[in-house]
Structures are given as C-alpha cells and as structure tokens.
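Feature request disguised as a bug report, sorry. It would help if multi-protein outputs had a clear separator. Right now it looks like this:
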Amino acid sequence: MSFWVKNHDGSTILEKPPRIVPLFNPGQREFLEDEHRHRIQMQKRAQQSGKNTEYYIRKQSTLDDARLLDEHDSFYKTTKSLLVLFQIMGIMPIHRNPPDNNLPRTGFSWTSRQTLYAMCVFSIETFIVAMVLRARVKNFIEQPDKHFDVAIYNIIFISLLFTHFLLPVASWRHGPEVAIFKNMWTNYQYKFWRVTGTPIVFPNLYRLTWGLCIFSWTLSVAVNVSQYYLQPDFEFWYTFAYYPIIAMLNCFCSLWYINCNAFGTVSEALARQLELTLKSDKPAEKLTEFRYLWVDLSLMMQQLGKAYSNMYGMYCLVVFFTTLTAAYGSISEIMDHGATYKEIGLFVIMFYCMSLLYIICNEAHQASCKVGLDFQTKLLNVNLIALDTASQREVQMFLLAIAKTPPIMNLDDYANINRELFSSNLTFMATYLVVLLQFKITEQRGLRENQSESNMDYGE
C-alpha cells in the first residue's frame, strides 16, 4: 500500500507511514526486557574486555573426573539399596557404567544385562498374572449372585492386575530419562563440593532407604496374606501375582519420598552456605555460582517428574479408581445390609491408597517450598544496603532466576504434583461418589415401591 501526500503547489510526495507499536502481554514484555538487559551486559563485557567488570557468568568447567564423581556421589551410596531392589524386581533396569571419563556414571540400554534380566522377570510374572486374571474373571462371571462387597473386592483386585502389563510402557520406556536424572544428581554433588568446599551429607538416608525397602515388601506380604484369610474366594496361589504389584506401588512411594527428602536436605545445605557467603566481603562472584547451583537443583526437580511421569501417572489413576470403587462399595453395602468386617476392609483399602497419594503430594509440596519459597524469603530479607553494587545486582538476578525457573514437580506437563492435586482428587471422588449414590438411592426407592405394590396385590 502506498501513502501519497499532496503539497500546496499540487505536486505529490511519498510519505513514510507511521510506525505501528506492537502490543505485548505481560509475559512477552518481561521476556523482551530480560533479553534487552542481557544484550546490554554482553555489550559492556565486549567493551571492557581485559578490565574488571561487575557482571559474572558461569565459569567454563573442564571434563569431570569419574573418580571424583564417585567419591562425592553420596546420594547414590545412600540410596543404592532401593536402586538394586528396582533392578531385582525388573522395574527400572538402569545400570552403573564403568568409571570412564567419557561415559556418564549411570546409563540405560535395551541390550544391557539388567534389561534382559528385567524382561525375563516380567515374562515369568506375566504368566502368573495371566493365570490369576483368568481365574478371577471366570469366578466373577460365573457367580454373579455373590454379595455386592465380594464383587467390589473382585473388581479392585482385577484392576490391580492390569498395572503389571503397563510396566514396560510406564517404566522401561523412560529409562534414558531416569539415567539423565541420576547423572544430574551425581554431577550436582560434585559441583556443590567445588563451589562450597564442603560435600553434601544425607543424614539417616541410608537407614531410611533400607527400612523403606524392607517395609515395602513386608506390607505387601501382610496385605496379601490378610486377603487370603479374609476373603473365601482368594486362593493362596493368587498372592504370588499380587506380591510384586503391591510392593511396586509401595516402592514408588518410597522412591518419591527419598528424592523429595534429598532435595530438602540439599536446599538447606545450600541456604547455609549462601548465608555465610553473604556475610563475606564483596560476594558477587560467589553469588553467581550459588545462583547456578540453585538453577541446577530446580531443573533436577523438574527432571524427576519428567523421568517418572508415566509411572506416577499410572500410580495416580490406580489410586483414584481403587479409592472410588472401595468407597462406593462400602457405603452401598452398609446401606443394604449394615456394617460388617468386609466393609471395614474396604475402608482400610481406601485409607491405604489415599495415604500413598497424600505422601507423594505432601512431600512434593514440602520440597518445592524448601527450594523455592524459603530461598526467596532469605534473599528478600537480605540487607542490600550493606552490599556493594555488584552483589546487589546478583541478589536481584537470583530472585529473577527463582521466578523464571520455579521448582515445580510436573508429570511431563500432565499434572503438577503438590497438595492441590490431592485436594482435587478428593473433590473429584466426592463428586462421582455422590452421583453413584444417587443412582443407588433411586434404585432402592424403586425396589421398595415394587415390593409394596407386590404386597398390596398379594393382600387383595
């Protein structure tokens, strides 16, 4: 399109159209301002090459020594028992590479011994699970006149069997992401030692990991043996299919608890070192290193959710379905025949499932608060007047990094793991439960009306 303007003498000239100012949302405007600020800093560095500058960037690191990585990998040493248990059960066949400088310490391969062993274990368990599933489905179909609570138990335990078939998709497929997460832990501890001069120590984590490994299998055995004695149609050989499934659910909860506990420990150690650094003279350059340590810790928390997204997504679905089914079955049976020991058993299943979900959501919330909110609070309470200009700017950039990289545990963009997830699950279950009970009450009302009409016809 051309823009023409006529002069007073009748001649025409070409006039440049006015510049249209684009409109940005707050997020776009903030991003452009950050990019402009960063470009100005780069220009100043270029002009002041060879001179002292007030801006600091991450130092270029050399190739890490495998021996030093192993020496400071305290997290692997303290949690090795759970990793070995996962390998024995065939849940996550990752392996430890030989100490070579050109190899990451943890790896995953579809042709490794651990993966082939996991496939063999999965094949054996699949045969047992298929036999039990066939028997339970046959029993459920051929005896439809059983009590309602017995049918609910069958539905719950049949649904648990299907979680076994999801293992290759939910766990093995994300093996490379899990290996990345483990390597991030290994590299982070070494970088923490290089920056602070002190190693990361995880007190009581070794005993806690061993205790959770033993407790996971003990609880699985206790649950299955109790079902064998409480349910008349639960045969003893069924338990061999449910032992690894219940233990796997318990181990997933233990794994999440241990990682969240470790994040909190590292955050507290980093906060202590940060306070000591702020008390020193001109801590700007050191604050830059702490800022990047914090960013690495936040990215590691995000990688945890990405690496185990399918497993914990399956976990949440199993908990939701089992809790809703058990709640409806117990309340419906109490409305029909009153409370019995079997209904108490259904309430126990509800409490068990919701306890696992609460532990996962609460630990994720606590870890996010320790890494994010607590650090923001410490930095906002810093007396900037007592610091030099470069240190003040580094504190501001630290706060900006926390705002830009929030420590959120996200299941690969499907859901955020926090207390809100637990409350939303309770809300959804309460909604579905009310709807199902409305159908149940309507059905009972119709049965009573039909019964009264039959009695009247019989009286006539």
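(second protein starts here, but nothing in the output says so)
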Amino acid sequence: MPTDAATAGGGGSDAPPPREPGYAAPARLWRALDRRRPPGVDAVEQAWRSPVRGPWLTSVLGAVLLVTLPLVIVTGLLDWIAYGPRLGQAFPRDVGWLHPPVFDWPTRPVWLFRLTQGLHVTLGIVLVPVVLTKLWSVVPKLFAWPPARSLAQVLERLSLLLLVGGILFQSVTGLLNVQYAYLFGFDFYTAHWYGAWVFTVALVVHVAIKLPRLVTALRGPGFARTPVARTRAEPADPDGLVARRPGPATVSRRGVLALAGGGALLLAALTVGQSVDALRRTALLLPRSRRVDDGPTGFPVNRTAAAAGITPDRTGAGWRLTLRAGARTRTLDRAGLLALPQHTATLPIACVEGWSTSQTWTGVRLRDLAALVGAGAPAVARVRSLERGGQFNRASLHGGQVTDPDALLALRVNGVDLSPDHGFPARVVVPALPGVHCTKWVEEIEFDG
C-alpha cells in the first residue's frame, strides 16, 4: 500500500512527533510557561488524533470562507446604509468614528435591497457547516501550550480568538434574529454592528498573517482523491494542525469536504425559498416567511395588526390621512384617495430577517400626494403610522424615494383591498426600500424642502 505524501496524504501514523519550534523573544517567558503546563493539557493535545486535520484541509475551507465571508460583510454594510443613516434611522444610529461613507439608497433596481438582504442572511445560514468544519480543523490550536512562542504568534492567536469568537457571536445572534428568538438581553442591531467590526478586523489581520501559508498549502500535493484506506496524516507543520500521534482514518478528506458541502447545500435548499416566491413552501427553517394561504393577501407579514395594537375602530370610516407641507395641510379619507389617479406597480417587500416577497400594489403616487400640498420636489417625507409603539412606527424617505414613479401610498394589493395585517387602510411601498420602512396603517405624511 503506497504511503508517500503524493498518493497517501503524508506521513503515516507511526511518524515521530514533530520537533518543537524554538522560542523567539522574550524566550524566557515562553520557556517558563512551557515548564508550568496546566493539568490535563498534555492529555488534551493527545486527544486530537484525526489524520485528516492539516494545512491542506484547513486551507481549502479557509479559501471558501475567504471568498464568501466578504460578501456577507459587504451586504451587511449595504443593508445598514439602506436604512438611511443620513435621515437618522439606521440602527445603531450613533456609531461614532466607525461611521462609513454613506449615500442615499437608490430605488433602482427595485430588487436591490431584496438582493443584498437575501444574500446577507442566506449566505450567513448556508456557511454555518463550513464554519463549523473549519473550526473543527483548527481546534487543537486553541488548546496548544504554551499559547505562543513569539510576539508575532501572540498577534496571530489574538486574531484567531477574536475571529472565532466573532463569527460564533454573529452567527448565533443572526440566526436567533431570523427566528425572532431574542433570548439575549441586548439590542440586536447594536450588538450585530459592533460584532461585525470586531470580526472584520480580526479576519483582515488573520488573512494577512496566514495567506502565504494558505497559498503554499493549496499549491502542495492534493488530498481530495485519497480514499479512506490510504488516508494518512500530512507531514508535521509549524502551526500544529497535524496530530502528534494520528490514529487510523475513519473518513477521508474528501468525505469531510462532502459533509460540509452537503450541509451547506441542504441549508440553502431549506432557506432560499424565503427570497424566491415560487419556492416559498420550501423555506422550512423559516416558518414565518412561508405563505399564509393561497389568497391575494396570503403572503408573509412581519408584524400583524393585533401585535401593533391596530383595532378596526381606528381604521374604519373615521380614518383620515393628513398631508402636510409647511403651513399647508390636506386631509383625505380612503374614498378621497381612491378618487385620485391610481398607479399599479409590482414591487418587492424585503425584511431584515431575510425573507422577501414581490406583489402587485395599487395606490396613489407619493409625488402626487406631495403635489396636493404644494411640495413638488420634497427633500424628505416623514411618514407616521397609527401604531403608537415599536421602533418602526414612523419612517423618513429621501427625495429620490418620494419622487420615484413607482413609490406608492398603496391602497390595494393583487387586485383587492389591503388586509389589516398588510396595512389597511393605506401603507407605503417604495422600490428597494427596507420592509420596515414601508410603513403600514399610515395616518400622516409630512413633506419638507
């Protein structure tokens, strides 16, 4: 049976333990730590015996994450910008010197926020098996003693600690937010924002340190086609990823990659339906995003009328919409709104939890409502809901969003009146706008500028 590195994946299980690397300054400190080994540390080091761990497997998984994690980071930043930091309604609001360059979120293409938020959430879920497999491949390093042998290694280990802690924190809190399970006692938006910056800085530092070794490992002999019977440990590496005394293989490296990839594909199949209407019923992991029924108003909602405290007496015949622009005021009932020129547009609603849906809305253009009170080209429109509580009972729209030809105060959807849960008697629907700012149960719009 061949056992050379090119065909069998490195040295066999009888290979001697790798020679310990030397110490760099301050060498006396590292030697002192090595002499005072905590109880059980040697037993823990010997417990990691899988021969598939090593630079090659870790580098393959790292390369996958190196390509995909920046997409998660960038789409998360774009979503924060979409909430309108210039209008003071991004969460968190006050981010100090971490405030990135911002711009007015465009209304075209109409599916822009649906794409960025869908990618952010779906990729975050799909990458969970890859992240866990990557952590499994490097877990022996977390128990290595001494924890460092040089100041450079201290920086590396610190970046690794922040990287592992950051990605676990972001993944867990993000998944809980998707499921509306706020088990933590802090504000999700604030924690997720600052956690993302900690993770991003740690990722950049870690990549800068490890990229040369990742490239070297990937250029070396491949191990993906080595069957279980011929799987051996790689040669000893300076990072300590290879087991000191590897045991017999129970799975090949190809099997490990297939398990991670299969898990990612399974999660993708159970998640993508939250962003694709035709696959809505397959979103089994996200029950709130599944279709309620087959009627024209059977698409998902984030907050129901009952949860918002909206009662029929507030949305019935006595309901009025108030339009303001400076000293000018106009009041309209629903019949008056229906008598105005109506416009129909097919637009998506996309929510921060990742689900989205595209429906056909009919109502009055916002720019026509602005014209009724003499605000031909407003810089800002402030929309207020009948809902009295909650973070999103009001929203501000910049001028481009108000004057977009498809920006509506919607009165009907898919050919029928809005249901109470979908914002009856009137709601805002604007192209590419985050769903939480498509205010429901509107009672007032004020145009400025």
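Even a blank line would do. Unrelated, but nice: The chain has a mean pLDDT of 89.
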